[in-house]
Amino acid sequence: MKFLNSVQPIHVVLALLLVIAGITAFVLLSEPPAGATGVPHETIAGLSVGGDAGLTLEALGSAPFYFQIAVILLSGVLLYMGVAAHRRDHRLRLFFLLGIGFAIFSWVALFLTYELWVTSGKTTVFMGFPTPTNWMFWGIWGSFAAFDLFYVIFFRRYFLPPEDEQAFNDLMDEIKAEGGDA
Amino acid sequence: MEELRQPIILSCVAAYMGLCIWVGIWAMRRTKSAGDFFVAGRGLGPVVVSLAVFSSTLSGFGFVGGPGLVYATGMSSIWMAVCSALGYATGFYLVAKRIRMVAEVRDTMSLPDVVFARYGSETARLLTAGTILLGVLGYLATQILAMALVLQSILSATEMFADISLLASVVVSSAVLIFYCVTGGILASVYTDLVQGIVMIVAGALVVITAASVFDGGFAEASSIMLANDGDDIMPFGTLGTMASLSWYFLFGLGLAGQPHVATKMMMNRNLADNRIILPMTVLGYVVAAMLWVSIGVIMRALVIGDIALPLGAADEAAPVFLSTYAHPLLAGIVFAGLFAAIMSTADGFLNIGAAAIIHDIPKAIRGRSLNNELFWARTATIVLSIVAASIALYSDKLVGLLGAFGWGTFAAALVPVVLIGLNWKGASARGAIVAIASSLAINFAIQLWQIEIPYKMSGGFLAMLTSMILFIVVSMMEKQKPLPKDIDRVMDL
């Protein structure tokens, strides 16, 4: 418990960066199958088509899946660091849990529907695009757009409360009175 | 109407350039000091700042290179755009408030000034300024080249300018850019950004509507054609696959706040509370403008891969061909003006921070003070920087490639740990900052210089950024935390 209490957000950031580095090293060391990053179109110059996505998924295993989960968690912890320590309350933590939870849910939905298409060739087109692509547009973008919205709504509670603004103005007054740095 | 297509396009572009010149003259009367020239005296309103932030982020790449990439490789590159919500969130949660406070407390004019204020290290300031200068030269050269190529393609379609050379196109387009940047400094830059941002939003919205009407079944029909002919291309990872896409998401999502031309504009708002308005306006502006990127790319790929249209000569022709074939001439004119807007709004930001690095930051780091008569030297440096970048663009393809690729990844890898983490973690040290910047430069240069092919086409900038972030934290943790100057310490508590 004492150890847990001493863990700061920066420690979690470092741990997640190391996880991402580990997954990246695994990917860099794995042998890419032929056409893993596309193959030239047979007749149209300058245009590439997908290789065997199934083979690529097999070669990488779950690496991309866990890579992105680590990136989402890292993003969440970094954003959490952007709120002053004395302002971090239960409501903030609850929002972050829900926000990051939705981001991970969107990513899982994207990846599973993509895997389904790779293995079965089945997908549905909704609002103009296949289901996994919609998860990318609305889920991946939308989950962090929720953090943007949170910033707007709770700006005066977490990001620039009136007392913090006053404290900054006081600091500026001191600096001006001293004619230099405080 | 069709026969008037070229005159309409030319008129729109000429009107836009005329507007830029007028803004330059207007801003010149209001630019009286180096502070006005570099940070607009920290007196800008929220609308101007938000449009300036988003239009600086979306360069000509979003209007030409982006649709070209979707045409060539499907949805892979869209990860650079869907990360925008995260990118702006990190920018405003972690950087916007603190950088604006530091700017006011220490009366800073540039990002290297902020780095010095935070770390108290002239070496960190010098490395930041050097990184900015290197990245700016590369970015600026590619922007000038893109601007000249577009102007050449428009003018060469007319009888009068059918044989216009690339050199002449560089001279004409750079002259407009240099004029308003030299006369009005950042004030002209942000007010042209305001016009440019509006043009980009209008262009983005109108193009999506046009693109949706190319097929009777809209985007659903385009998706069905792509699913029937390839499938990978319209899926979220495109033809480049998962790791290329996800490495771009990391680099662009977490790297946006490390872009100096974006971070610098976060120092310019009049009131700290304006950030509440600036963030949503920036995000919405970017999303609407970036829709052009997705829609043109998808429609052109579906048309070509479905044997409905002829293949393009080059991927970057996707946007110009779409506009000349499917868009109303007036819309084509607006979008071409929007294209110049996108390129110029990024280029003018680079010119400004590059000039600041030359006449303010580097002299301060080396001899402890900046040049006398900064305003005069700022204008001179802007001209010299433009000429050097234009020369690189014209005479050294290899250097453009090297420095161009250096751009975003270099800024992100070198500056994200130092700025984004450093402004929110008191334990960050000057040595950590120096190691992070130096290692990111070394990795980025090595990858470019030796043309290292990274498996699964993962981004080199991502590898450099990941390494520099880890080194920054580890090196800082290995040191005993030094007390911060009182003013910075109090700012970091807020």
TrEMBL record, chain A:
Highest rank taxon of the organism: Bacteria
Keywords on record: Membrane, Transmembrane, Transmembrane helix
Transmembrane listed as a keyword: yes
Keyword Membrane annotated: yes
Residues passing through the membrane, by range: 12-30, 65-83, 95-115, 135-154
Protein name: Uncharacterized protein
Species per Swiss-Prot/TrEMBL record: Kordiimonas lacus
TrEMBL record, chain B:
Principal subcellular localisation of the protein: membrane
Cleavable signal peptide: none
Protein's UniProt keywords contain Nucleus: no
Record keyword Transmembrane present: yes
Cross-referenced Gene3D superfamilies: Sodium/glucose cotransporter (1.20.1730.10)
GO BP field: sodium ion transport
Lipid bilayer topology: Multi-pass membrane protein
TM region(s), chain numbering: 6-27, 39-64, 76-96, 126-154, 160-182, 194-214, 234-256, 277-310, 330-355, 376-396, 402-425, 432-452, 458-478
A molecular function (GO) term: symporter activity
Reactions the enzyme catalyzes: L-proline(in) + Na(+)(in) = L-proline(out) + Na(+)(out)
Keywords linked to the UniProt accession: Cell membrane, Ion transport, Membrane, Sodium, Sodium transport, Symport, Transmembrane, Transmembrane helix, Transport
Subcellular location: Cell membrane
Family label: Belongs to the sodium:solute symporter (SSF) (TC 2.A.21) family.
PANTHER family per the UniProt record, alphabetical: SODIUM/PROLINE SYMPORTER-RELATED, SODIUM_PROLINE SYMPORTER
UniProt protein name: Sodium/pantothenate symporter
Organism: Kordiimonas lacus
Lineage, broadest ranks: Bacteria, Pseudomonadati, Pseudomonadota, Alphaproteobacteria, Kordiimonadales
